[in-house]
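In response to the reviewer comment on reproducibility (Comment 2.3), we provide here a single inverse folding case reported in full, input and output, so that an independent group could reproduce the run without further information from us. The structure tokens appear first.
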């Protein structure tokens, strides 16, 4: 089973603010930030809140952080998670991905998952592993 393969990297993050009709500033609920509404460092920003420029930076940094070539596959080959994998996208594929504002997976979660899957895919996908929370919420990002 292929886990939705998002390819992103680090920057860090601060929550974005939005204004209501009265001009008052308020923080949106997690996962409901509009694209481009992430300011500052983006590590803690939801994928759905990143601008195109932030997403491109994130893709570059992830490729550097996981130090793997496009097409690399981090797959669990035995045990209960057998067949689960993440695949590294090419930069242009990474940048082209669109995420709805409801996508609450953070850049930090994504990066931790990729690093863990590269080191030991079976452990990354097992209950409590670095990828389980992200995989559980991946449907909100398609």
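Designed residues, in position order:
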């Amino acid at each position: 089973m292929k886990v939705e393969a998002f390819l992103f990297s680090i920057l860090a993050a601060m929550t974005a603010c939005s204004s209501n009709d009265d001009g008052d500033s308020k923080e949106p609920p997690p996962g409901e930030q509009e694209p481009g509404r992430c300011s500052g460092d983006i590590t803690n920003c939801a994928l759905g809140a990143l601008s195109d420029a932030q997403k491109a930076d994130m893709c570059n940094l992830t490729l550097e952080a996981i130090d793997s070539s496009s097409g690399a596959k981090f797959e669990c080959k035995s045990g209960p998670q057998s067949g689960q994998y993440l695949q590294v996208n090419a930069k242009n594929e990474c940048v082209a991905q669109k995420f709805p504002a409801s996508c609450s997976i953070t850049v930090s979660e994504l990066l931790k998952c990729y690093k863990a899957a590269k080191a030991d895919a079976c452990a990354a996908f097992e209950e409590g592993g670095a990828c389980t929370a992200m995989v559980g919420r991946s449907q909100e990002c398609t």
